[in-house]
Amino acid sequence: MKIRAATIDDAEVFAQVGKETFALATPPGTLQKDIDSYVQAELSREKFAESIQSPDKTFFAAEVDEKVVGYLMLSRGEGLDGVKGKNPLEVQRIYVLQHYHGKGVAKAFMEQAIAYAVANNHDTIWLGVSKHNPRGLAFYGKHGFIQVGETTFRVGDDIHEDLVLERAAG
Question: Three-class SS string for 44-88?
Fold first, then answer.
């Protein structure tokens, strides 16, 4: 497996990965129409192209045998209520194709996010995760994240309850 900086050329494959993986992180009972609405609005090739070019975002791709199997999206800017860092970095998305779950891709992405945060003088890393995502909560807990708040996340017409987690960057 190789982790590399993403380029505008990755927009199409990231949209495909997002489409295939987004539903895996949504709470049980989320309606397909709401998932489809979110994917269409937020995980399109055009949206990725725009985000990849944003000075406030940084993307990394994971490749296995030269095939993109996931992506990491980091965002600079203020954290949500509860985030205490003065220069926070958000782990906005870690999406990995289901076939590669449990094979170290997400762990490699988290290590990349931490290294990026340290190298770019971020003092804290934060993220939002569904209250109903035990796999995600366990993963982030293993990486030193603790709950510092709560927020909501809109998926179509559905409002999900998320936890805000944070850890020191170093």
Answer: CHHHHHHHHCCCCEEEEEEEECCEEEEEEEEEECCCCCCCCCCCE
Residue percentage of the chain with pLDDT more than 70: 100
Structure tokens at 82: 């509860």
Token pair of 155 as six digits = 């998926």
pLDDT for position 163: 95
Give this prediction's pTM: 0.93
For the record, the structure tokens of 47 come out as 């949206």
CA neighbor of 168 nearest in space, from 142, 146, 151: 146
Task: Determine contact, residues 146/39, Cβ cutoff 8 Å.
Answer: no
Rounded CA gap, 165 and 90, in Å? 10
User: Under CATH, which number does the domain 2-168 receive?
Assistant: 3.40.630.30
CA–CA distance from 82 to each of 34, 78, 98, 102 (Å)? 28, 11, 31, 30
Q: What are the residue ranges spanned by the domains of the chain? A: 2-168
**For 22, what's the count of Cα atoms within 13 Å in the CB-facing half-sphere?**
24
Q: Measured between alpha carbons, how far is 89 from 125 in angstroms, rounded to an integer?
A: 5
